[in-house]
Amino acid sequence: MIVGKVVGSVVATRKNEKLVGSKFLIVEPYKSMNIKEKMVAVDNVGAGIGEIVLVATGSAARIGLNLDNSPIDAAIVGIVDDAVGLE
Amino acid sequence: MIVGKVVGSVVATRKNEKLVGSKFLIVEPYKSMNIKEKMVAVDNVGAGIGEIVLVATGSAARIGLNLDNSPIDAAIVGIVDDAVGLE
Amino acid sequence: MIVGKVVGSVVATRKNEKLVGSKFLIVEPYKSMNIKEKMVAVDNVGAGIGEIVLVATGSAARIGLNLDNSPIDAAIVGIVDDAVGLE
Amino acid sequence: MIVGKVVGSVVATRKNEKLVGSKFLIVEPYKSMNIKEKMVAVDNVGAGIGEIVLVATGSAARIGLNLDNSPIDAAIVGIVDDAVGLE
Amino acid sequence: MIVGKVVGSVVATRKNEKLVGSKFLIVEPYKSMNIKEKMVAVDNVGAGIGEIVLVATGSAARIGLNLDNSPIDAAIVGIVDDAVGLE
Questions:
Q1: What is the CATH number of domain D2-11+27-79?
Q2: pTM score, two decimals?
Q3: Beta strands in D18-70 (DSSP E)
Q4: What backbone torsions phi and psi does residue B74 show, to the nearest 5 degrees?
Q5: Yes or no: is domain C2-79 CATH 2.40.50.220?
Q6: Residue B45 — pLDDT band, cuts 50, 70, 90?
Q7: C 4-63: CB under 8 A from E
Q8: Chain E closest CA to C12's CA: distance in Å?
């Protein structure tokens, strides 16, 4: 998983039917993680812009959200309250 | 997922039989996503050259398209209408 | 898998219910592995800050931990006692 | 998927038994894809050195080839006849 | 898959129980593959330090080794006898 900050959102009216109802947020990895690529993740915890979140990627994202058959490869699965080692 | 722009297409007459009928589009990640690698994705939403799209990768691509047994690792699953945070 | 050092931890009170009880540790890949990206991994072996560990990523992480349906994409699956070739 | 050029081949006499009969080709991503890493892919379409091919990676490679239980993570699944946007 | 050289090994006494009996080797990708990251792979073919090997990654590693439920994401699945295009 990675720790990142929610920096935006994406709206797609025309989309795969299994994605209807999903909220797509743009996550920028936390600077000290040394990951430069942003990602679009489906929100699973009610995250909002500016929050620091935990993101799971790959098959873990869709299966962890009980959306086994959806085309989802990244999901916000936690709101980070505190972190040590990322200063 | 990533947000990208459809910049081209690929034609392959000789291919795995499960790919017959699939449309292969070349997607360039949106500049501010900080991803330099382009990808070839199967279209699932009627996307065209120049459109901004949402792409799912990995097993999510084939399973999300109900093409569980096809050799597909990336799929265009949405047309992006609006995005905040990618300016 | 990669060899890395546990350099921190993450606390997330609000999270996917399947993650309740998991310990999230931040792992920095061992320098000579030439991997700059840090990762957040679920601890499976009682690892602590400062320890050198073995991390499995992708579907192997959740399935290897018997947490098949959890949104986990990285897990600490060993404490490294000795290594040759990473000096 | 990626578009690449077949630039070589690999012979391995001692190998996992499920790989017996597979042809391993080295693929260099097409320059404009901005992917520098080469990969070894199992041929599924009778590709030869110098041909431009479509490569699927991850679980899609083995499942798409009906080799669900083989240790294959990349497969050549098409011969590219024409491409727009990769000039 | 990638072609690499076995450059070391890792010993972990305390580990996930499904990893007991596995041999962990450190593989450095062959220079011309343009992959800088090393990886730790489970040996499936009796490879030794200094040998040039074929490595499969992702779910292919554990499933290809009939270790479907083990936290393994990379495996050495062949000893390379000869290669064209990697000079």
A1: 2.40.50.220
A2: 0.97
A3: 24-29, 39-43, 52-57
A4: -155, 140
A5: yes
A6: very high
A7: 32-35, 44-46, 54, 56-61, 63
A8: 24
